[in-house]
Amino acid sequence: MLTDPEQLRPAERAESVTEDVAARFATVTQLLERRGFPPSRIAPFFMKLLFAFFAEDMRLLPGNLITQHLEASIFNPQEFPERMLALNLERAAAQGGAVRSIGNDAEEGAGEE
Question: How many CB atoms lie within 10 A of CB 100?
């Protein structure tokens, strides 16, 4: 850090992180297309996932809810869609209601901890 203070420039750091994330999304998109998913289903999926990660980061969802479900599905990816449907994030967002958490039946008041 002392020998290279330019590494602390936030704009360049944000840009490199954005490029890295975009490249990873592109890779996952290609893998999903190879598995037969049409782009018309992939794009909305990513938008919802991005929104869910944003909501998690802003603490609008309890704990690391999305991350936990994603990690729990690593070795059984076919479980991930069912886990996301069980959360019913769209209903929770619309009603400010409960969302399912791993190990809990429900978490009331999604933004409260």
Answer: 18
